[in-house]
Write a structure and sequence with these properties.
The structure is a homodimer.
Chain A: E1 16-29, E2 32-39, E3 42-48, H1 51-60, E4 65-74, E5 82-93, H2 112-117, H3 119-122, H4 126-148, E6 152-153, E7 159-160, E8 172-175, E9 178-182, H5 187-197, E10 199-207, E11 220-229, H6 234-255, H7 257-262, E12 276-278, H8 279-285, H9 297-311, E13 315-319, E14 332-333, E15 336-340, E16 342-347, E17 350-358, H10 362-371, H11 380-387, E18 393-399, H12 400-407
Parallel strand pairs in A: 3-5, 6-10, 12-13
Antiparallel strand pairs in A: 1-2, 1-4, 2-3, 4-5, 7-9, 8-9, 10-11, 11-18, 13-16, 14-15, 16-17, 17-18
Helix pairs in contact in A: 4-6, 4-12, 5-11
Chain lengths: ~425, ~425
Amino acid sequence: MERTLSAEVAGHVDARITVAGWLHTVRALGGLTFALVRDRAGLVQVVTEDDADANLLRDLGAEAVVTVTGRVAREPRAPQGVEIRAEHIEAISAPVGPLPLQINKRELSAGLEAMLDHRALSLRAPAARAVFRVQAEVAASFAEFLAGQGFVGVHTPKLVSAGAESGADLFAVDYFGRPAFLAQSPQCYKQMLVGVFERVFEIAPAYRAEKHDTARHTNEFTSLDFELGFIDSHEDVMAMENAWLVHLAARLRERCAGEFALLEAEIPEVPVRIPRLRLSEVQEAIGLNQGEPDLDPEAERAASAWAKERFGSDFLFVTHYGVEKRPFYAMPDPEDPRLTLSFDLLFRGWEITTGGQRLHRYQDYVEKLTARGLDPAAFDFYLEAFRCALPPHGGLGAGLERITARLLNLRNLREATLFPRDRGRLTP
Amino acid sequence: MERTLSAEVAGHVDARITVAGWLHTVRALGGLTFALVRDRAGLVQVVTEDDADANLLRDLGAEAVVTVTGRVAREPRAPQGVEIRAEHIEAISAPVGPLPLQINKRELSAGLEAMLDHRALSLRAPAARAVFRVQAEVAASFAEFLAGQGFVGVHTPKLVSAGAESGADLFAVDYFGRPAFLAQSPQCYKQMLVGVFERVFEIAPAYRAEKHDTARHTNEFTSLDFELGFIDSHEDVMAMENAWLVHLAARLRERCAGEFALLEAEIPEVPVRIPRLRLSEVQEAIGLNQGEPDLDPEAERAASAWAKERFGSDFLFVTHYGVEKRPFYAMPDPEDPRLTLSFDLLFRGWEITTGGQRLHRYQDYVEKLTARGLDPAAFDFYLEAFRCALPPHGGLGAGLERITARLLNLRNLREATLFPRDRGRLTP
């Protein structure tokens, strides 16, 4: 089938072409029947005055798959200023039974739960589709930017024998009769691989068996991770992420202007140097107790709003979190061992990244694990990397869905997740 | 730290520079001590006649992390024709205890099991490292080529309620007290997403709880998947993979010549049209019974060798496998319903891809699932995509580790897996 995509139709005025796609809308107006055909590139208007074709369109209804052959004519009121005067319409595949919800209105009436229940259909809505086109660009930009910086893309196991983040939040797997777990992060492996490649990144699923059910948590998410060796401090890790975000914003401006316009969202300006403040400074600025080792979600929103006001920045690096709120592998601040050389990145009110410098000496790990009541023997496969010597290193993990949600001002992380998994949801 | 990478040292003859990396080898020769320093870019020779520095190098030993500052001099016998005459050597991080194996010999004495047991060290060997640099290029090329063809990169759940491939081979997960499984493939989701984007790809882990323990099976692997709509037949799917492989070979020639040379492997010539033969034709050519619905591993080797001999091709598409050996979603051949519009791609003796055209009508799924004793209700989340109408479509799944292993003539899939998971191995 010689097929023209909807976005290319305007280049074929007066020519006879064939388009293929889904019937997005069908409506009769006077003696004419209009349909919008949706394909991967957008929407194109089709018009017919033939009774048989009009009946076919009406009987098929929304979401039927069709091919339409006809001549292209200018029509200022149609998308892209053109329409196809149909000569031949063919049904390829028809819906079975009534559609579970409508996706062809500008404002969708279905609530979030219905959208998530009927993902095979709700994702077809142009607005939903736009979210995941932006998400694909975020992931592709992460990989391409880091590859250009000498990072190697890796694939580490998600079936693991021990969790690096916290013991309580692990999903258990029956591994040939032995217990195994789903990895909460690639932390152990990416550090081990600093010894191999110095610089590694991974884009892969990560799991947290947390029971809380909030608008910014799901139990399976896509983690963007990198780790790099031979750093001076966590500042080098922040600088790398900052440079990536500058690259990302440029790419989104180049490739996703249409998606941002459709979703009425703004591509952020990324400062060449995102403001970097210590946790205690941020706490002071927003009037909080400086003794707390962490920010809660409300404080993150306040800090983000303050940074926007103070620096005009949608982004804020908050550094030097308290040691008790950071994982065992966090590097203590040499100037104050109650603090760590760590950071979170806040973006439009949400934490989207956690990172920092890591410990790199074997003995430090043995001490930290023991002090936290963890058994170093369970981590021996990991500790071997330190026994074989690693340089100072650090890295970060960022949630792909969280970044997408904040880029597009989506209220719930689930809107930025194709098929979310939470306590109540294992399908679709 | 102003640092020069090993691969750049030759551009700094007579200059004073600093390199950083791991001591790959240390040896004394007459009054001089030589070390090879390994960093992410390669190896560089360092030489000293200072007793204190010589003692430091000897005491640190292999795998210590050091920085070396000195003047660059030409030295034809050293890598890249240069060496660094050390002025200052600093120990950054020293190994603890003896190394579990040696990685600094041209021929490694450790067997595969020891290499897998001590992955944090064995991966540092230049030959091992080269394998995964090639692998990273394979994955990156898959993503970039397909994005250029209008495919959207997606992230689908690995925690699922039902398996698409075969019921017996699922890993069970305790999902908040409910049973869940690890996805064997993104099959259901990528088909659902044909309705959204027409063309999708995914690079993600996949799981098979198969108990067999062979050189070409592991229980967790990285699956390269794509699916595309509006096809005429499985031929369109093969054509897309063929075009990708042509792109991949060009990229490997451009970026990985050094890795292939080190591993004494040849980048394959990919025919513009890889030979495509029906299973029955292949069986006839290699003297097998044409009644069998599938090829066993031995027959795959024979078929591959025959294609190399007959067509000069390292690749062979074998099509039209028997319906009983293909999954429920396979499209039967309209000319012979005992066969399917499916294919495998053989590459240097191994099957590296399985794909084909899929059923796209709701009623066909209900019938096929029922006929195979599967409950359509368990797949309702998936069947909704067909009730909402999908066009003819097809796709494939390819094993990243298998492709890597065959590109580099590795005998065991585990050599092409950073941290393999099999029945006996859950660490490192």
